[in-house]
Design brief:
Helix content is 33%, strand content 15%. By secondary structure, the protein is an alpha/beta fold. It has 2 domains: 1-65, no CATH class; 69-323, P-loop containing nucleotide triphosphate hydrolases (Rossmann fold, 3-Layer(aba) Sandwich), CATH 3.40.50.300.
Length: 324
């Protein structure tokens, strides 16, 4: 169980990770990636060796171990193939939009290496523990929040090996008192690594949203994120084009700074929904830094329109699944 003392400076978790590393040495390699040792070794690795692996030899599929989070109706995974595309900003404002529409919402900051939810939501303090050692999420704007940023100093790096990262993500999912919520928005780190795999193996994901910019390099990586969800049988809700265009506040002239329309074209080619274009707006950045996300303000209708449309579609789809 994670508690505040263990997280200080990452010391205890860093040392604990040495017992479950992928280096191939030691007796305690329960979750290593080396493929050597006793029958139970490598139980969560992907190397293909041993009885506990999820591939071949008549072993269990690791995705069969998924269990829903008690009280959580739908989980939305927000991903990107690369960093710097505004994925966390999107996650925060999507969560607020859903809450504005009367839904009970949780927001899990799963980017352990760069947790930004505390800054963007304007709250950073240690959460309490229940009598049975469950973490009580913090709350802001009517949203239940969990982030590594609440548990370690702001300037402390998470210097952890993969097995420790997977342990922390699992505990954020299972050992947080989420209560009854309609949507849990999970802000994933960029890429397709341990955190993403742990999430999809631990809990069933109802919706995956991929955030990209119009640039070719961003779209190439976004396609990898889409391919990852396809391989692990997670339903892709769609792709959104962030930083799509810029409207000059002085002359109202539109500029396609990072090109335009690439995400929509990619969505059409890949057969996934295109969720909309979010423009570059100076207030989005400034308000996020102040801990006042743009969807808490009554400004920029073009931005609010995109988030409201996505939120409406998510709510409708979730209700259709319940009624099916």
């Amino acid at each position: 169980m994670i508690d505040g003392n263990e997280m200080d400076g990452n010391k205890d978790y860093y040392e604990e990770g040495a017992d479950s590393c992928g280096c191939g040495g030691g007796e305690e390699e329960d979750s290593c990636g080396c493929g050597s040792g006793g029958e139970d070794e490598g139980s969560s690795c992907g190397c293909g060796g041993g009885e506990g692996h999820g591939h071949g030899h008549g072993s269990k599929n690791p995705f069969d171990e998924q269990t829903p989070i008690s009280g959580v109706k739908s989980i939305i995974a927000v991903a990107s193939g690369k960093g710097g595309v505004g994925k966390s900003t999107f996650s925060v404002n999507l969560a607020i939009t859903l809450a504005n529409q009367g839904k009970k919402v949780g927001l899990l900051d799963a980017d352990l290496y760069g947790p930004s939810v505390p800054t963007m939501m304007g709250i950073n303090k240690r959460p309490d523990l229940t009598s049975n050692n469950k973490i009580v999420p913090l709350e802001k704007f009517g949203i239940k929040l969990m982030s590594l940023g609440f548990l370690i100093p702001e300037d402390a790096p998470a210097i952890w090996r993969g097995p420790v990262v997977m342990q922390v993500i699992t505990q954020f999912l299972k050992d947080v008192e989420w209560g009854e919520i309609d949507f849990l928005v999970v802000d994933l780190p960029p890429g397709t690594g341990d955190i993403q795999l742990t999430l999809v193996q631990t809990v069933p994901i109802n919706f995956a949203i991929v955030v990209s910019t119009p640039q070719d390099i961003s779209l190439i990586d976004a396609k990898k994120a889409l391919a990852m969800f396809d391989k692990v049988n997670v339903p892709v809700f769609g792709i959104v084009e962030n930083m799509s265009y810029f409207i000059c506040p002085h002359c109202d002239k539109r500029s396609d700074i990072f090109k335009h329309g690439g995400a929509k074209t990619a969505a059409e080619k890949l057969g996934v929904n295109f969720l909309g274009e979010i423009p570059i707006v100076e207030d989005i950045c400034e308000l996020s830094d102040k801990g006042e996300p743009i969807m808490t303000k009554d400004i920029h209708p073009e931005v609010k329109s995109v988030f409201n449309k996505i939120s409406d579609s998510l709510i409708l789809r979730s209700e259709q699944k319940v009624g099916a």
